[in-house]
């Protein structure tokens, strides 16, 4: 699996997220038919995986989670506080920041 940064192709989504949420940074990635939206806010980070053709695989969730956790400072989040919410064609990974 390879994540390709396609943020520039989703300017409307990025602008909307920045204007209407507490997001400070929004990046959009593509992994084939799966779109990954990474949002960084003051108190948390969110990763959203979307696939309109099929459900998200456990291996995809694991890969994306590890990919983004490597980019974050280890002392900025609590591994035990990470929540994964799975729905049909959609997965949300919430990473709360530590104080």
Keywords for this structure?
Streptococcus thermophilus LMG 18311 protein like; alpha+beta; single chain; globular; 38% strand; 2 helices; 99 residues; 6-stranded antiparallel beta sheet
What is the overall silhouette?
globular
Instruction: Find the CATH topology.
Output: Streptococcus thermophilus LMG 18311 protein like
Classified in CATH, the superfamily is Streptococcus thermophilus LMG 18311 protein like
- Largest sheet, if any? 6 strands, antiparallel
Average pLDDT: 93
Helix amount: 10-25%
Helix and strand element order: EHEEEHEE
Q: Strand order, biggest sheet?
A: 1-2-3-4-6-5
What share of the residues does DSSP label as strand, in percent? 35-45%
The total count of helices amounts to: 2
Please report the distance between the alpha carbons of the first and last residues: 33 Å
Number of strands: 6
């Amino acid at each position: 699996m390879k994540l390709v940064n396609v943020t520039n192709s989703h300017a409307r989504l990025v602008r909307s997220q920045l204007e209407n949420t507490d997001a400070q940074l929004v990046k959009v990635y593509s992994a084939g038919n799966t779109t990954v939206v990474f949002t960084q806010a003051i108190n948390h980070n969110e990763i959203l995986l979307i696939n309109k053709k099929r459900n998200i695989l456990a291996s995809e969730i694991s890969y994306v989670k590890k990919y983004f956790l490597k980019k974050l400072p280890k002392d900025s989040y609590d591994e035990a506080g990470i929540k994964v919410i799975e729905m049909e064609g959609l997965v949300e990974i919430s990473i709360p920041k530590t104080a």
